[in-house]
Amino acid sequence: LDPAWLGSPIASATKRVFLIRHGQAEHNVLFEGGRKEEGKKILDPGLTEKGHSQALSVRTNPLLKKFFESKGHNHVIVTSPLRRTIQTTLNAFGTWRDEVNTEHGRHITILCNPDIQETGEIRCDCGRPLDQVKSEFGLKYPYLDFSNVHDDWHLKQGDYRDRGDLLRKRFNRFTKWIHELPEENVVVVGHHNIFLANVGVSFLNCEVREFEVSPNGTWIPITPKVSNHDDELMEEEKTHVSIYGGHCKMKMEGWGLEVPGRFR
């Protein structure tokens, strides 16, 4: 990324960031079942039963082993304020968070940040007014921190329009914000297209990918690396690429961004 985005000095330390895509949501099922137009019409869709199970399985992901063993020390969790990402975050980390709070007296908050909301201006990629989100989640889960979420965050206007330059702008802003956090290790629960536009990878549902983020805003993939050829992909990945490969190419071209040689 261009260092010009920084605007002001940021922390010098390199950050370790774990990007996680949300679990399977209602619109994903319709999209993959050839009912794309139906899927687009669902406002802020939630997780399916399978999506909840996928989110629970994040607890056993080997890339997050040190995170869970750390009891949250020097780690922070960040989520997009959409329903499917909050549900994924709560399923993946909620019980663990409660255990750490009870056993170690550590009050761990989960930060919500609208700069990693999904890109589209269609209903399934739009959130809801902040008071509605708080009504659904805030009372039951008071450790969700909405202080970074403004009242009109869900309106696809200004920096939240679905344009390549604006997607990069808000992700750059998010990267700068990450560097200003005191924690060295950051877990981020977000969405397929915002990750695609900025790190060039097509994520599976609840996939975890580890990155090193340098002080100048460069995202360096650590684990896993992007494959060199299809023989390195698992069958699930091959199926995913067969479904989403064309979509990814179309999106990157539409945004005016460089199309990577491989999306996984």
Automatic annotation (TrEMBL):
GO CC term, one of those recorded: cytoplasm
Matches recorded under SUPFAM superfamilies: Phosphoglycerate mutase-like
Superkingdom of the organism of origin: Eukaryota
Gene Ontology MF term list: phosphatase activity
A Pfam entry, by short name: His_Phos_1
Listed Gene3D superfamilies: Phosphoglycerate mutase-like
Protein name as it appears in the record: Phosphoglycerate mutase-like protein
Taxonomic source organism: Amorphochlora amoebiformis
